[in-house]
Amino acid sequence: MAGQLPPLRALQAFEALGRLGSINSAAQDLGVTSGAVSQQIRLLEEHVGLTLLVKDGRGVALTPQARVYLEFVSQGFERLRLAGDYIEAQRTGAEITISGMPTLMLKWLGPHLHCFQAETPEISVRLEATHREPDPKMLEQMFRLTYGQAANRYAHSRVLFTDICFPVCSPDFLARHPEAQDPTRLPHLPLIDVDWGAAYTDVPRWKDWFAHFGLAPLPRPIGVYSLSGLALEAAAGGQGIALAQASFAEADLTLGRLVRLSDQSLPLPEAYYVCWGPQTLTHQVARDFLNWLMLASRRNRSQND
Q1: From-to residues of CATH 1.10.10.10 in the chain
Q2: Range name among 53-57, 92-96, 265-269, 280-284 with the lowest pLDDT average
Q3: Separation of alpha carbons 275 and 267, rounded Å
Q4: pLDDT, greater one: 266 or 115
Q5: Domain 164-267: what homologous superfamily?
Q6: What is the torsional sign of CA 42, 43, 49, 53?
Q7: Is the pTM of this model over 0.85?
Q8: Does domain 93-162+270-304 have CATH number 3.40.190.10?
């Protein structure tokens, strides 16, 4: 009937069937009999007034309408699972979830996080690397590391640091192209560019570097990457010169995988932020993590000054 939700057990059976692909697998997942799953699917079909399953050889398959319906139902169950994770985190306070932009997580947080974990071995840390900003309401169970105006969507935020960028390449590339240390020769060498996408058009790229220092126009780069981390790996592999952010290149510069080619630098127009929800800091472990993170960010700022 329109306006009424289907029975939850019927939706569970349908979601399990769609996720696992067979009635038997769905029954094992739910701890019921195959007949019980079939019965719940028939009940759901009666409720929605559509055929959801058709015979497919020895098994069954979803109809086209059922596949679309499954996408919505699956999203609902995923939200329920997230809600369960949230309640468990609120109950125990023993896990910290950190969501963040991929290269920021990999190249900045990752190399430092072991220090926090060594100080708090009883705390479990879950890392989620994604450009997609999470639902602000779910930030009660996590921290979000992000860039620029994206921080405005969250209840609370603090500036981590404002980064700078400069040219880098591998020692092997520099040995093959010693002229790379001459800024006027850079346009004639293989260049690796980074494009974060339409939402981040003000993040410096090679064209901005050349324009700022009055150098020759930029030729077509040998590669354009959507992730700064991929561009740095290409540079470390000797493929060309990348315009690296200091916080992302720090570990590779220390290890000697990359070398800096200029004392000059360009600042990013906006800062990186840590964000959190209204209830996050009710747990001592979350307060401890935030305090540690801010200390790490202050060290990063002092290195960039």
Answers
A1: 8-88
A2: 92-96
A3: 22
A4: 266
A5: Periplasmic binding protein-like II (3.40.190.10)
A6: negative
A7: no
A8: yes
